[in-house]
């Protein structure tokens, strides 16, 4: 069932069930009461990443408090997405965009990977998590992807579960069309690895290409920015062997 985009959506930490009531956070109070001018009795959609999506009714027990009461469930909680997104951090503004688009495209886990030519850094996991929640609120997504602490590429590969295939975007691939390569993949557990703006080093590409659970793919005839490559790669994966298929 698709999301209702006509109603305001809000992520909450509280458990959700019929009749459950919980207080909005200070930030949510400000947004609902002062920015949106929400009135007593108004209804909106709430979700917590565990209990599906619910219609909730707004009440103001005092001028400084806002309560939300779950009325009825509109969508059940779906199975979590199993696509892992592995990415080299970018500079802050573009990193925010990259995280938001990964959530929209169905990533179930976001794993920052430190590579030799990485140009950005992860200053705060909380910022990434906030971007994840914002993207989920805006796009009707009920599952909240996990955000993992950064790992060096070598550390990530050393303990990698070999039943999960890594698809990595290789700018040095000999062809231009990723579809024939993806259509040969038989594993259902997948991870997508996108490198930094400067690309993978020769040593990193050699390391990746030498592993039996890694498949390199091209992304067409044009050179793509790292954030564009992430969206393009996730689109072709979802369309050929993912949850669009």
Helices, strands, pairings?
Layout: E1 9-11, E2 21-23, H1 26-35, E3 43-47, E4 53-62, E5 65-75, E6 83-87, H2 92-104, E7 107-114, H3 125-139, E8 146-147, E9 151-152, H4 153-158, E10 165-169, H5 179-183, E11 190-194, H6 202-209, E12 214-217, H7 226-240
Parallel strand pairs: 1-3, 6-7, 6-11, 7-8, 7-9, 10-11, 10-12
Antiparallel strand pairs: 2-5, 3-4, 4-5
Helix pairs in contact: 2-3, 2-7
Describe the 3D structure.
Helix 2 (92-104) packs parallel to helix 7. The chain has 2 domains: 9-75, Ribosomal Protein L25, Chain P; 83-240, 3-Layer(aba) Sandwich (Alpha/beta knot). It is of the alpha/beta class and 245 residues long. Strands 6, 7, 8, 9, 10, 11 and 12 form a 7-stranded parallel beta sheet that branches. It has a 5-stranded mixed beta sheet with strand order 1-3-4-5-2. The protein has helices at 26-35, 92-104, 125-139, 153-158, 179-183, 202-209, 226-240; strands at residues 9-11, 21-23, 43-47, 53-62, 65-75, 83-87, 107-114, 146-147, 151-152, 165-169, 190-194, 214-217. Helix content is 29%, strand content 26%. Strand 7, helix 3 and strand 8 (146-147) form a beta-alpha-beta unit.
